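# nightly structure sweep
# worker-07 picked up a monomer target from the shared queue
# config: single-sequence mode, recycle default, output format = structure tokens
# input follows
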Amino acid sequence: MFEIIDARWLAADVKRFEILAPRIAVKQQPGQFVIVRVHDHGERIPLTIAGSDPTSGTITLVVQGIGKTTRLLNSLEAGQAVLDVVGPLGNPSEIRKFGTVVVIGGGVGTAIAWPTARALHEAGNRVLSILGARTRSLIILEDELRAVSDTLFVTTDDGSYGQQGFVTTKLQELIDTEERLDHVLAIGPIPMMRSVADVTRPHGIPTTVSLNSIMVDGTGMCGGCRVLVGNQARFACVDGPEFDASEVDFDVLAQRNAMYRSAEQDALKRFEQSPARDLDRVEHACQLAARHPEVNP
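# output follows
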């Protein structure tokens, strides 16, 4: 069991957890993730590590409650625990001195962009960060990202905070006004990352995107995160999760990301109708065990 040391809301349906996981806290690097299982009948979900404190032995996870399991996780509070936290998994972000780097975090993707921005800043880069969301209430980790950026820009779709418009609007302004941009990192919804790639591609600016949202079991065994990168099949969880944006086939990515949408919606609907089944850690029995009770301990 992994104890939840602290749990607090950052925005509507977005919660920040500090979880006691000493061995992961010592080894994790920016860009890596963990597999979390809330209870012994629960699904395994990948969550990118937003940060860690090796001294206290804690890791930081930021969870947006979209589906059944993330909403179940967000119902937990400090003092409770999750059953499994496995990691760190995935390849860490490439951290070196590029020069002037633009780090873009869209929505909850900011939680993933934040530790990478910090590492890039510590490596001696000039970090220009763009934080974007639909509206002001969904802006998260602004102070944290500002502290590791030379300049932070905030954009909201509805203009309720910062500059009105998309993150790509501000990115295009930087391309037009900056003498040189050496690298761009974009983490957020698939349409946002596609748009960032479309903006930087004509200028030949090296751009990295994180495909963490498509991952399922995080081990490469299920094949659910198979994507085309440079016309080759790659697995986001073991080959990534970060890839060269200019080589990602975003059409295939979007299609695969929607494959399980109906099943996810059905699971969420059942959870909302009877949350006690999962909150009490009671779930449907294994069909194999039901048919062959002689093998069930």
